Amino acid sequence: MNVVNESPRRKELTRLAAQLFVQEGFDRTTVRMLAQEMGIKSGSLFHHFRDKQEILAAVIEEGTQNALTLARHALEQCGGSAEDRLHAMARAHLETLLTDRNAHVVALYEWRRLDSEARAHLSHLRDAYEALWEAVIDEALDDGLIRGDRFLVSRFVMGALNWTVRWYDPEGPRKPEDLAHELIAMIAPSTQAAQAVSTKV
Amino acid sequence: MNVVNESPRRKELTRLAAQLFVQEGFDRTTVRMLAQEMGIKSGSLFHHFRDKQEILAAVIEEGTQNALTLARHALEQCGGSAEDRLHAMARAHLETLLTDRNAHVVALYEWRRLDSEARAHLSHLRDAYEALWEAVIDEALDDGLIRGDRFLVSRFVMGALNWTVRWYDPEGPRKPEDLAHELIAMIAPSTQAAQAVSTKV
DNA sequence: GTCTATAAACGGATAGAC
DNA sequence: GTCTATCCGTTTATAGAC
């Protein structure tokens, strides 16, 4: 249903909605604000979306799908070592979060605001993305690159990455790639990455 | 003003408000919901708080003050090594976040919803707590326990810890102390903690 | 596909009695 | 310190014209 209903107009509106949801939060974003940002009146919005919930669902679907596609692409492009793959995954994650800076952020931070139907419909997408992460973490564990409990390590890593949204300054000197590099240096000290960091100090 | 205005009644109401704010989020929590939880009518609420904003400010002040007090206490009690201190700090942080599970969570996740006056009034408290963290991270860096950029390491660590709120199951087998232990094992592999983890695998 | 107009419900907050 | 009653702005969503 959502795949069929993808007019270019609707896609553009979804993109604008994502921006507002990040800035204000879903609850504080009114349909009037959305409409104004889109250059139409609030009544017209409901020609494109059944209700406000459906806008949120569209944004989150877009954000997760996008993250999934970019992550898969990054994993195909990168080298075959566990470190390469972990780095590629972290970098892709941060780029969708900090550069694109919209739909993926909403997917992470406003998931709770989805009603149960939308959650059921989108959870498979979310699971697919998390499965990709789990696989990369597993490889890094098997390789001895990092150590610890599978469950906890993946959640700590995701937490460190997801929290960047709160403090990252896009105008600052650090790029998403730098952050990915530094995170891996922090948790996998026997890598080239870590050597570079430790000699720098 | 806030220190003076601390009737036991108001403190109890603040505690209940924190619980609802965690469950529903600040924006979705109505004054009617708050009143019902407190066993009074919505009009009576405004005898204790000037407006809804002041309730949020009270919760966040309580949560941050509490985290600060417990962290200071933990640092006084623990051993003097950098690892001991980092562990004590992480453990205290997680306990206020996951066991108490209320006001500190609100302080972290609803800070953005404070108006500018409240933010100005509370930022010194927040800064004091973050300064405690920075000091402990600095000690760990100086000691060689962990490596990397001061700014990034502290934010990655805080992110990993703060994100636990999203997935931690209080009914599960892991205690906050276990999480603190595993996080340090992950980022400081030359410790006893890490040895235990790696031999377990 | 967008507009105007408006319904219907809900939100925070106040006044004054007890 | 709490209650009842209520004001009034805001919100989501709909109806029907263009």
UniProtKB/TrEMBL annotation, chains A, B:
Keywords: Coiled coil, DNA-binding. The keyword Transcription regulation does not apply. PROSITE patterns: HTH_TETR_2. Residues 30-49 bind DNA. Pfam families: TetR_C_24, TetR_N. Gene3D superfamilies: Tetracycline Repressor, domain 2. GO terms for molecular function: DNA-binding transcription factor activity; transcription cis-regulatory region binding. This is TetR/AcrR family transcriptional regulator. It comes from Billgrantia montanilacus.
